[in-house]
């Protein structure tokens, strides 16, 4: 946290190509980057408890589309949230790369079902832009912003908004 | 125990006092007694030596582990020592002073407590009930005290106020029920004070708060006295009780009376007198003891009592031991600890997972390939430990039904008195164990059934006599384990259920057209229908529209079932079948498409593969099957749950009969995979209730299986048939 205090002063000096140098001098968000279909999304690492390889998901009858089912997480039953309906993405069958990102939240615990977890990166706050206006509002409200990293557009998922919908 | 005694020379009296206090398994004490006896025998006449030799023989048998009944053996030893003492006295042997240190503290029994004060527990008070009352009240009072503190700091805190109010209210109710009048009187006073605070008439500050705290303190003292009374001490209300009760009735007096007394009535700290203990235990008569002590005034009380043959040595010794334990300021060390049930639940769940995790290891190919015998041996070893641990965990939560049975016994007595009938209540198997969490939950259904039996079942004595039955009715409560279930049967020898009356009512209510093709058991089971009461009049006991359907519902939420069998004029038996624990469900694993579900075994009546000719449809849609001559609807689980690739043709699938009464239906599944015990869990955060599913469980392969809820499925099926094909229901 000391870095943040220092970051304000040093901000201007390091303004160029901060990401390439990977100097954590500026206030930054650590994101876990994952894939839904062919799109890239990120979720703040502080909200991620762990990433688990998909065990067989038990389908729950007569439940909304965004509840993918439940899985066994070492004896706990964890509900699995399918993010695709939130962003209007078509459903795809799970593959070898499919993962569940267990989310830690004060609202409740759930896991996000994603097609692939790629990496965890640090993005300076200054690089995060508001969501494009061309997105329909009911999709955009589940996003906190977006950023461009290595020519990839990454949409940052708002954990709170998604969980609110789930409650 | 008294290690300091070992150095001194023991007298016969010391030994006598010792022998009644030692545990038969305490070899060190036995050796001490033996040594002392031998020493005495050396310097005693032959008449004394003989019984001593006999006693020593018994001790040797006990220390050698040959005594089959150690307690009996101990009693025999006591008897021989008594003989020796008598012989010693006759032979004019030197009288040794009674040197039991405890005995010397015993005040000589004096005048009985003043008349008019209740100095004993109510005669019918049940020790088990009192124990429970004491524990419960202590918790309540502790809670009330904390809440009072909060309330004083924040007089507007209605939640804290309610806690205090409820505590006093509960204590009042229970103590009145147990006949502890002064407690209920005090609690009543405190309750009125609090209700005034609740009505915002007064505020819980200043002297009013003091008054509330004093009531709490006084209640604590009173409960302590009840506990002591349980141990045989006479029960005398503490000083200041009457003052406080009067003050509570007129709290304004407290406002003017600035000086609130600090001491909330001093409960006597003196140990109870020996004579009182013996009298309270019914071992001796008060007058006899008083005479005995008056005659031999300068001797210790214990000695005098033994000498005058009012009570045996053993009894006096036992009373002495009791006195000592009661005199101790600290309560006797508890042999149990209280653990939060949620922690216990979590532990049990974890062990359940351990069992599954371990079975995964045990079934691993590497282990079973036979190439690693050493590994296999180790896994087998762990297997045993895990199994033992599981058994232990289950037993931790098990408690005997005793307390429930005792409550019921009391209830039966009261109900019988009120109805002026005679009932012999016979409890059988009150040691049957059941999950702690279930005990409270089964209480209400059982009480309901008991009330029902007393109110509707057993006839008045005159009527019974006319029918050639004994005047007193019999009510049998029988609890036993059967196939992983606890069964509680309540049988009465009263009127029995009137088949015709039930049938008429069923027809009148439109439940059936006629009684054709209906077995007796099917008919009597109608009494579990809502609003189905054949009671002609409403009494304060039952028949208030809360029928047996409530019992059934309550039992079914516990994954149990209730059945009734009856014979007119001979009586009626209700049997409540409950799982041993809610934590573990006995279930059948069924497969539907690529999904597997657990159907609790208790809900399954039978399963079969239907013949094509048994199947038919009504109006081209509603599918039915004829089972045992009865038409019942078929619900397709794959349709209800929207599962693909499931067996569509009932003749190649399996029909499972679930539910009972007119709720019975056949559930179509693909196949039965097997039987399995599972640890039932909630469905996880944020899922809420899913219709047709009562919970989840981790299966042997690590996947989550869903536990089916037959009632929910029936509801889902009706909903589906009502609204065409609407299947998606909001969670």
Structure description:
The complex is a heterodimer of chains A (167) and B (731). By secondary structure, chain A is mostly beta strands. Chain A has a single domain, classed as OB fold (Dihydrolipoamide Acetyltransferase, E2P) (Beta Barrel). Chain A is built from four helices and ten strands, in the order ααββββββββαββα. In chain A, the strands form two sheets. Chain A has a five-stranded mixed sheet with strand order 8-1-2-10-9. A five-stranded mixed sheet of chain A has the order 3-6-7-5-4, with helices on one face. In chain A, a hairpin with a 2-residue loop joins strand 9 and strand 10 (152-157). Chain A is globular. Chain A starts with a helix and ends with a helix. Mean pLDDT of chain A is 81; it is low at 1-11. By secondary structure, chain B is of the alpha+beta class. Chain B folds into six domains: 3-96, no CATH class; 127-256, Up-down Bundle (Four Helix Bundle (Hemerythrin (Met), subunit A)); 274-327; 341-396; 399-579, Heat Shock Protein 90; 584-722, Beta Barrel (OB fold (Dihydrolipoamide Acetyltransferase, E2P)), CATH 2.40.50. Chain B is 48% helix and 15% strand. Residues 1-7, 93-118, 256-270, 328-332, 536-546 and 724-731 of chain B have low confidence and may be disordered. The chains are: A mainly beta (167), B alpha+beta (731). The interface between A and B is medium-sized, with 27 and 33 residues.
Uncertain runs of chain A are 1-11
Helix content of chain A: 10-25%
Strand ordering within the main sheet of chain A: 8-1-2-10-9
Order of helices and strands of chain A: HHEEEEEEEEHEEH
Please report the first level of CATH classification, the CATH class of chain A. Mainly Beta
The CATH topology of chain A turns out to be OB fold (Dihydrolipoamide Acetyltransferase, E2P)
Task: Count every helix of chain B, treating DSSP H or I runs of 4 or more residues as helices.
Answer: 26
CATH architecture of chain A: Beta Barrel
**Shape, principal axes of CA atoms of chain B:** globular
CATH superfamily of the largest domain in chain B: Histidine kinase-like ATPase, C-terminal domain
Taking the sheet with the most strands of chain A, its summary is: 5 strands, mixed
């Amino acid at each position: 946290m000391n870095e943040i205090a220092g970051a304000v002063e040093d901000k201007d000096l390091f303004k160029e190509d901060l990401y390439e140098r990977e100097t954590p001098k500026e206030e930054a968000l650590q994101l876990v980057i994952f894939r839904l279909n062919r799109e890239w999304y990120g979720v703040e690492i502080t909200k991620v408890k762990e990433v688990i390889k998909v065990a067989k998901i038990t389908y729950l009858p007569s439940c909304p589309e965004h509840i993918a089912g439940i899985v066994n997480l070492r004896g706990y039953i964890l509900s699995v949230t399918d993010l695709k309906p939130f962003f209007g993405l078509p459903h795809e069958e799970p593959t070898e790369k499919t993962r569940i990102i267990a989310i830690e939240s004060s609202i409740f615990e759930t896991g996000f079902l994603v097609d692939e977890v790629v990496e965890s990166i640090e993005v300076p706050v200054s690089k995060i832009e508001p969501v494009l206006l061309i997105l329909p509002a009911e999709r955009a409200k589940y996003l906190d912003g977006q950023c461009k990293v290595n020519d990839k557009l990454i949409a940052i998922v708002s954990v709170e908004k998604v969980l609110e919908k789930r409650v | 125990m008294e290690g300091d005694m070992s150095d001194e020379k023991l007298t016969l009296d010391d030994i006598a006092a010792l022998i009644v206090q030692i545990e038969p398994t305490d070899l060190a004490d036995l050796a001490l007694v033996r040594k002392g006896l031998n020493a005495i025998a050396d310097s005693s006449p032959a008449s004394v030596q003989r019984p001593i030799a006999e006693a020593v023989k018994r001790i040797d048998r006990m220390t050698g582990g040959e005594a089959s009944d150690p307690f009996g053996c101990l009693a025999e030893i006591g008897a021989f020592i008594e003989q020796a003492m008598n012989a010693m006295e006759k032979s004019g042997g030197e009288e040794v002073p009674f040197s039991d240190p405890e005995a010397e503290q015993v005040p000589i029994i004096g005048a009985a407590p003043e008349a008019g004060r209740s100095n004993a527990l109510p005669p019918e008070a049940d020790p088990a009930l009192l124990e429970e009352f004491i524990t419960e009240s202590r918790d309540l009072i502790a809670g009330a005290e904390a809440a009072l503190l909060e309330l004083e700091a924040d007089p507007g805190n209605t939640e804290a106020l309610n806690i205090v109010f409820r505590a006093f209210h509960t204590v009042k109710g229970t103590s009145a029920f147990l006949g502890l009048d002064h407690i209920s009187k005090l609690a009543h006073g405190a309750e009125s004070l609090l209700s005034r605070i609740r009505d915002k008439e007064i505020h819980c500050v200043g002297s009013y708060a003091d008054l509330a705290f004093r009531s709490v303190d006084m209640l604590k003292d009173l409960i302590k006295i009840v506990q002591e009374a349980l141990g045989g001490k006479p029960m005398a209300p503490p000083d200041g009780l009457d003052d406080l009760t009067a003050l509570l009735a007129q709290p304004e007096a407290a406002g003017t009376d600035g000086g609130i007394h600090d001491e909330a009535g001093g409960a006597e700290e003196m140990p109870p007198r020996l004579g009182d203990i013996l009298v309270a235990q019914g071992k001796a008569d008060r007058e006899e003891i008083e005479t005995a002590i008056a005659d031999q005034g300068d001797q210790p009380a214990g000695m005098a009592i033994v000498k005058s043959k009012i009570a045996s040595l053993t009894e006096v010794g036992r009373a002495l031991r009791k006195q000592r334990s009661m005199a101790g300021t600290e309560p006797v060390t508890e042999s149990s600890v209280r653990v939060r049930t949620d922690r216990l639940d979590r532990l049990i769940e974890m062990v359940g997972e351990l069992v599954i995790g371990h079975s995964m290891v045990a079934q691993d190919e590497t282990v079973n390939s036979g190439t690693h015998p050493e590994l296999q041996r180790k896994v087998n070893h762990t297997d045993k430990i895990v199994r033992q641990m599981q058994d232990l965990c289950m037993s931790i939560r098990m408690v005997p039904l005793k307390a429930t049975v005792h409550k019921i016994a009391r209830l039966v007595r009261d109900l019988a008195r009120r109805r002026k009938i005679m009932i012999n209540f016979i409890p059988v198997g009150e040691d049957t164990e059941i999950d702690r969490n279930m005990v409270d939950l089964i209480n209400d259904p059982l009480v309901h059934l008991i009330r029902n039996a007393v109110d509707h079942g057993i006839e008045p004595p005159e009527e019974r006599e006319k029918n050639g039955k004994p005047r007193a009715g019999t009510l049998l409560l029988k609890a036993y384990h059967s196939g992983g279930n606890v069964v509680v049967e309540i049988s009465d020898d009263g009127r029995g259920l009137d088949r015709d009356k039930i049938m008429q009512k069923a027809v009148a209510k439109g439940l059936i057209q006629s009684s054709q093709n209906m077995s007796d058991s099917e008919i009597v089971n109608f009494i579990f229908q809502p609003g189905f009461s054949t009671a002609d009049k409403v009494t304060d006991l039952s028949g208030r529209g809360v029928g047996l359907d409530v019992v059934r519902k309550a039992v079914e939420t516990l994954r149990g079932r209730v059945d009734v069998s009856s014979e007119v004029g001979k009586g009626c038996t209700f049997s409540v079948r409950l799982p041993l624990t809610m934590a573990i469900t006995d279930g059948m694993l069924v497969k539907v498409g690529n999904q597997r579900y657990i159907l609790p075994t208790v809900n399954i009546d039978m399963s079969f593969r239907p013949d094509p000719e048994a199947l038919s449809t009504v109006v081209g849609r509603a599918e039915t099957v004829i089972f045992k001559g009865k038409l019942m609807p078929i619900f397709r689980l794959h349709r209800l749950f929207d599962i693909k690739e499931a067996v569509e043709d009932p003749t190649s699938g399996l029909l499972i009969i679930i539910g009972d009464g007119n709720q019975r239906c056949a559930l179509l599944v693909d196949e039965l995979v097997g039987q399995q015990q599972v640890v039932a869990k909630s469905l996880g955060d944020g899922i809420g209730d899913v219709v047709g599913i009562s919970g989840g469980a981790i299966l042997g392969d690590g996947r989550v299986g869903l536990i089916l809820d037959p009632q929910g499925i029936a509801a889902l099926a009706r909903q589906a048939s009502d609204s065409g094909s609407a299947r998606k229901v909001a969670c």
